[in-house]
Specification:
alpha+beta, 4 helices, transmembrane, 2 domains, 40% helix, DUF3093, six-stranded antiparallel sheet, membrane, four-stranded mixed sheet, transmembrane helix
Length: 175
């Protein structure tokens, strides 16, 4: 399912405990990047030769495209592992997922900023999820994950945490 809201597109797939989301850079960010490349290319063209400006424009366009692809925010949860971009963690180390929207999200990134959290979000995101960690070896207290479909992610995490808790109790584990 593809949804477009407030200028950015998110691909979301959710079945059972699975959750996948890709959030692309907003149109504003994309146009700002394009304007930067064009303005710089124009300035180089005005000061130097056309061939130099064309070469710069090609190189800058390739680099901007690489940045744009790298800026795509990816969230995947398969019931066992939570992956956000290149980071991953097992669900057994997580607890207390909370959806943050609007004012809560802005406050968490502003006045209530916590540098001890693992921050996995982009500046154009407007909502997300905060998840606490129970792994003492991890230097972070939790994860702050930017997500357009945070409620679905929280539901999948809560369902997986409940399943993991029931399985742990069935095996006699207090984890």
């Amino acid at each position: 399912m593809e949804t477009t809201v407030q200028g950015y597109t998110a691909l979301t797939y959710s079945t059972g405990m699975e959750f996948r989301e890709r959030i692309y850079p907003s149109l504003g960010v994309t146009f700002a990047l394009l304007a930067l490349v064009l303005a710089t290319s124009f300035a180089i063209w005005a000061a130097l030769e056309t061939i130099i400006a064309i070469a710069f424009a090609l190189v800058a366009t390739v680099l901007a495209s690489i940045w744009w692809v790298g800026a795509i925010h990816k969230i995947e949860f398969d019931g066992v592992w939570l992956r956000v971009n290149h980071a991953r963690i097992e669900v057994k180390h997580l607890f207390n997922p909370v959806f943050l929207d609007g004012q809560q999200w802005r406050r968490r990134l502003g006045a209530d900023f916590d540098p001890a959290l693992f921050h996995a979000h982009r500046f154009w995101m407007r909502s997300g999820v905060e998840v606490s960690l129970r792994d003492e070896r991890d230097p972070h207290r939790g994860w702050l994950i930017g997500s357009r479909e945070g409620r679905q992610l929280v539901s999948a995490l809560v369902e997986a945490l409940g399943t993991a808790s029931r399985e742990g109790k069935a095996r006699g584990l207090d984890d």
